[in-house]
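Can't paste images in this forum, so I'm doing it all in text. The chain is below; anyone willing to post the predicted structure tokens underneath?
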Amino acid sequence: MEFEKAWLSYRRNPQLGLLWKKNSIHSNFQGAIAKNAVQELQTATLEILDCSMTESSCQEESGVLLLLEENREVGKEGYEICQKDGQLLIISGGEAGILYGVFHLTRMLQCSNKELELPVKKTADSPLRMLNHWDNMDGSIERGYSGESFFFQKNEVLVNDRTRAYARLAASVGINGVVINNVNVKDRATWLIDKMFQKELKEMSDIFASYGIRLFLSLNFAAPMELGGLDSADPCKEEVKTWWKEKMKELYTRLPNLGGFLVKADSEGRPGPFTYGRTHADGANMLAEAVKPYNGLIIWRCFVYNCQQDWRDRKTDRARSGYDNFKPLDGQFLDNVILQVKNGPMDFQVREPVSPLFGGMEHTNEMLEVQIAQEYTGQQRHVCYLIPMFKEILGFHTHCSEKLDTVEDIVTGRTMGNHNCGMAAVANTGNDENWTGHDLAAANLYGFGRLSFDTSLRAEEIAQEWICCTFGQDEEILEKVEKILMMSWPAYEKYTSPLGIGWMVNPSYHYGPNVDGYEYDRWGTYHRADHLGMGVERGHEGTGYAQQYREPNASMYDNIETCPEELLLFFHYIPYTYELKTGKTLIQHIYDTHFEGAEDVEKMAALWDSLEGKVPSKVFQRVQKRLGHQKEHSKEWRDQINSYFYRKSMIPDEQNRKIY
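Text version of the structure:
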């Protein structure tokens, strides 16, 4: 299928002059990354500056220097950009850092309307900056909302021009690790670690490596049985350990650039060590020993819960499961194991508290998992710019130490001084022409990469960059699209789930309003609403989940008066007549926010409509159609939620608006 260039679509910038005296590039290192760095610079300067750059073997006679210098302060993935004696220098301690420096210069050329602000000095904040693709080998994508897979089709591995185009996009925002297959590894995908697909995987791995990206695979824990014919996958059995060691030796011989493996075990029916009475540490460490000789990583997901447990017990709380399972194992994991922890304790809701595993694990490598595939936030049919949410998560104080206690500190390695940590996002791409289905959803893909590389960036800065790189420097486009993006997450929260309650979506496919639709709760509903109030009591008188946090967070969440109101219903059962800090009752807040959210979408759609003729017609029409759907769908959300809680409470709207 055809594919667009997304934010790498360059246009002439006549306001910029040349930054160098001679139109030639010299690189003091060779190889695939050097070749790509030179090509990217040549393409950008030709299309943006109308300057044709040639390669030169002479450093003194060149205009742009790509200089690899070991032991630079910025490290192997950071870079410096500066001017000296009529030359522009991009310097790094590693090859990938040079490439990132070239892409940074390209962004500056795209977004600047005056002289570039030099010098620039950047380091990579998160050691591992990863995209997790939930692609299946038949071409489908679990929670995919932008077409089918461009990695797989009809149970075969695809390697083509789109593979390289994807690697360019990922590298341009600093991504350095990609998992290409679904964490739910079944059937044919189990064979990805066997010889069958190694030719194609080697080609893909080489393309990725030429852009500074390491290929990762999701792993089936039961592979020794399904591939090897063993009668067990017990991680403590010698024959199982031997099988994995031999398999990894064979695999890394063919795929030396393989970064490692992502593992989902003992959750939602996936096999794992629990079957054999073993712990997550037993399972992860067995695999870690097998990949350690090849500098491989085992990324072990902490999304575990027993979906068959008795939900009629009010003490049963899925939110507790991650902490309950992993906190007792703190310090037992090998150094090349990273626990991948979802941002919240549940499942990528529009509002959740930060997982207590951040700050709870003092001696274990952790990375943050977020979802830019908008499973519960509009499925890329609604615009919902998620970077403001990610900024809040990163800024959360866990109180695990007097200083350097935020989630950002933990996942960047500042808290513990470790290097096996970082950020991962469940990817939102597919083979749609524009990559992400909704054109504005590309801001989440771009934004995650930029934020994981430079956590100091503000959500507004990232939005402005993406808009400028995608649509150009027109001030009206910049102002209005930024406003749409920054309104979108608060608007979605308003017309869907109030005060942290979450979940009120249709079961299984998780789209559209269904107030009682929580698929795992055999007691009835997730929100626990009755005629007097709603919310889940997670304080000391309820499930006790609030006590999983360190002080003072535990006491803050436990007390209704100090609990942040945006999470009030996540932590407490609240009467409809309870007065919030605004002076409104809970029920009136529900009514008002749902009306406000739908009105916000009307404003967002009007802002976009006013840009007709300013953006390419194909893009304008695609986004206009999506926003038209969002307008109607937000009203459906508004009406169903308000009607449900009016009928539960029988308390009328103070503004006498029509509630069905």
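The chain has three domains: 9-122, 128-471, 494-536+573-649. The domain at 128-471 is CATH 3.20.20.80 (TIM Barrel).
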